[in-house]
């Protein structure tokens, strides 16, 4: 039973928002959880965060950046098109509950994961501060949505084209120096999460991160997404995707993220050379 | 039985064993003594009338033969290929005492393949099967049964319950039904079109299939109860990969056999980039373990282009758990064997890729709890092996994901479900069978469990 795209919107030149019919997932999904989708018979299975859900309409919303072959192909789909397979909700749901004052740090498309968690944190009665960052103005997403939830929202761009110029860690350090927070929650590019954890560690601030890894089944069967958390091997798909950032073996994680880098390159090249390539014939 | 030549077959994923021709099958069938008290049947976990189907082959009534098979076994094309007949029916065959036993598996495969080729199961034929079961007074009023997992145990149970009129839904978390038959066993041992046909057949018997459904996450058992399901069969298999527990096993290039085989078989990574799922294979591959999963992994690695593939096993040849045929196939194809060898540490480069593995030699000591002689490390025997891909095929455990949502479900120390003779668990309306109960075992044992559970669920629901 394929899954129909009911809305397809571009949020930036590389970021897309899809609303997809998936009634049972819409009913069950909670903040922090994700889906795995497979586009077609020859497709790979990739995980994507569930940003929004609408149980009444029976839809879920995903926001994704075009980085690999599958996300590029996904981006080429239009309203009314169908995705062959979607399974979810997968992974553990966010459940930190009431902690007091929480600070959220989102980078790039990771902001799409921050949004439902901020909503959850607000419902749980927490004080909310949000820092989001992107390379440039055009790539800043969900600013308005977050502004509605967060009395204090700081926007950072690498080139200063919007908000303040610089990295998310700059205002983070300032805030942590000036005030006491009870929890940090960070989602973004791997290196940004690592650097953010380095900062919060100095301030002994508990930090949750949501890891994104290559997966196959995403049900705990294959172990390709394994990470080392406080010295123990865990699977991102079933034990995560949320982990305590200060316990993550970032060095290992960053290296493991590159395990199919050559193949991914080849896959994109093959897709772009599609006109000449007979492999899809 | 004819096989593809080793030289050619390591360049393709096509089936290795080619099966019998009609003449060969009849000739082999004629050897059957048609014993009055057939011992072979006692060796069959699903109680196939073995002399019965062989007699039909002898009489050239191939359609009749497949009917006899399907009376007890909904997956004959699968069993004919991958059952360990040498330890079951064929082991009991009287002819085996003086010469070679009847090749029951190959004959089963012949009949099943004949049907696929000349007489593919039709909706009408399935309707006839349902009618024949219903006419024998076994009609049930369509009560809803949930079968969780579409591997051999789940499919068998679903088929048996659907045949007699239950409203069965099979829930599968992957995008394709078949469980280990699709993600685990390679095409060269079990062509995937056969599983498609067998799962289609089971659906034609009336069982519904819901893919992309992860029980415990998509819905809990409690929610399914609210939806009207009256009985549950948990047949989720052995889906949790075991790693070695040694330093360095998270280096890139170390796969669990589950990952390695799922990428290759289910996702067809051997046809990358035509198929999107990648796999990375090095020149020197080490497969740890010596069961069927290890042989499958080693033979896949060869076909993916590895220059040297080595099975590394801590005991000796006699203790290797794989089927003899599979060990022979692997040897013929050039797989090397480092026996009485135990990996103790994996080394990688600064980018995180596997480069070398430190091993130790063992000698055999006294038998352990498995009854096999235990490996004892020899002091000072450490050596280093150059290696760039490692596949851990040292076994799989029960996936705790669904089980954790059922606090009343009694589990063993290892996390397997505790079930009685009939497959019933500690929860009244929940049964379990196959690898989730026994730990990793064979396809036919799982099917046998599925059959028993179907009977027990039927008894329960008729009360």
From TrEMBL, chain A:
UniProt binding sites for FAD: 63-65
Record's protein name: Ferredoxin-NADP reductase
GO biological process: pyrimidine nucleotide biosynthetic process
Annotated positions binding [2Fe-2S] cluster: 222, 225, 237
Pfam families according to UniProt: DHODB_Fe-S_bind, FAD_binding_6, NAD_binding_1
Record keywords, A-Z: 2Fe-2S, FAD, Flavoprotein, Iron, Iron-sulfur, Metal-binding, Oxidoreductase
Top EC class of this enzyme: oxidoreductase
Record note on cofactor: Binds 1 [2Fe-2S] cluster per subunit.
Domain FAD-binding FR-type span(s) in chain numbering: 1-96
Organism: Candidatus Aquitaenariimonas noxiae
Keyword Iron attached: yes
Keyword Flavoprotein part of the UniProt annotation: yes
Source organism superkingdom: Bacteria
SUPFAM superfamilies, per the entry: Ferredoxin reductase-like, C-terminal NADP-linked domain, Riboflavin synthase domain-like
PANTHER family: DIHYDROOROTATE DEHYDROGENASE B (NAD(+)), ELECTRON TRANSFER SUBUNIT (PTHR43513), DIHYDROOROTATE DEHYDROGENASE B (NAD(+)), ELECTRON TRANSFER SUBUNIT-RELATED (PTHR43513:SF3)
Entry EC no(s): 1.18.1.2
